[in-house]
Design goal:
- It comes from Neomonachus schauinslandi (Hawaiian monk seal).
- The protein has three helices and no strands.
- By secondary structure, the chain is mainly alpha-helical.
- The radius of gyration is 25 Å and the shape is elongated.
């Protein structure tokens, strides 16, 4: 009976260590994401913040509209730059 008890205690201690490590990683990730969020909030225009708040209230996904808008302008100058070089 003592062998079973000691084996279970060892297994529990091992699991506790794994969970502590996961908690530590999640806390670090959360801190990183909070810093990123704060940076994005400071860089966003009032119009973008208002649009984001409106999307949150309507339930539509905000991530699909803004990244497309940011990827399109760099593509246009690249195509214009490729035209004169040909």
């Amino acid at each position: 009976m003592d062998l079973v008890k000691s084996h279970l205690m060892y297994a529990v201690r091992e699991e506790v260590e794994v969970l502590k490590e996961q908690i530590k990683e999640l806390i670090e990730k959360n801190s990183q994401l909070e810093q990123e969020n704060n940076l994005l909030k400071t860089l966003a225009s009032p119009e973008q913040l208002a649009q984001f708040q409106a999307q949150l209230q309507t339930g539509s996904p905000p991530a699909t509209t803004q990244p497309q808008g940011t990827t399109q302008p760099p593509a246009q100058p690249a195509s214009q730059g490729a035209g004169p070089t040909v």
